[in-house]
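Duplicate of #3305? Posting structure anyway:
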């Protein structure tokens, strides 16, 4: 099993095959911050791709319609799907690192046992030819979680989508939108030390921005 990565060249940082592979895996996971038309982007994409007339309907859009019609928070769906995708990728990485981490192969008569071990080899696509066996993939996966949470789920409230703003601003805005201005102001002041009036004004500006651009597409 091989994976290819590019060397950035003498002017760039050293190529790190573990990081390249982990980033490629994370790119396959739903984007918890991506939103389109007020919905998480992955949900919107499924709902938009309805079959043409006469073609059989894919079960996923129909299922999503039923779930959302019951009042389920789309962000909860995103969290469930992301957690399951992470667990699958993490287990695949463990399978490559050492099947024993998953309890496979511990007993000779265990169902699903195999006479094979697995190895991932990174092949450089630029510069001097190089083949690098990769180990410790499951640890590298969580280390390069783009959310910075090492594979852990996000909490509540879900931070508001405000590209370019720090986490405390996104959390404060989310609290304010949920009607909890006390917690919004506390979150802002704990992070910045700002006076009460300054915190209120900053949060009001963010809330106004979100109401005008709920998907956070404007820069």
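Output from current build:
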């Amino acid at each position: 099993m091989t994976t290819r990565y590019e060397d950035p060249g003498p002017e760039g940082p050293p190529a790190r095959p573990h990081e390249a592979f982990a980033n490629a895996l994370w790119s396959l996971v739903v984007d918890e911050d991506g939103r389109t038309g007020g919905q998480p982007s992955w949900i919107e994409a499924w709902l938009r791709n309805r079959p043409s007339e006469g073609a059989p309907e894919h079960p996923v859009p129909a299922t999503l319609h039923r779930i959302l019609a019951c009042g389920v928070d789309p962000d909860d769906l995103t969290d469930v799907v992301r957690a399951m995708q992470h667990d699958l990728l993490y287990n695949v990485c463990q399978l490559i690192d050492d099947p024993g981490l998953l309890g496979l192969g511990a007993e000779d008569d265990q169902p699903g046992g195999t006479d094979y071990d697995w190895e991932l080899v990174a092949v450089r696509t630029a510069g001097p030819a190089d083949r690098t066996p990769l180990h410790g993939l499951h640890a590298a996966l969580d280390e390069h979680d783009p959310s910075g949470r090492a594979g852990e789920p996000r909490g509540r409230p879900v931070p508001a989508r405000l590209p370019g703003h720090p986490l405390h601003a996104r959390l404060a805005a989310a609290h304010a939108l949920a009607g909890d201005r006390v917690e919004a102001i506390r979150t802002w002041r704990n992070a910045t030390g700002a006076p009460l009036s300054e915190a209120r004004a900053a949060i009001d500006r963010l809330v106004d921005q979100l109401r005008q651009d709920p998907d956070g597409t404007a820069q």
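Confirmed duplicate; merging threads. Strands lie at 2-5, 35-36, 39-40, 120-124, 131-134. The chain has eight helices and five strands.
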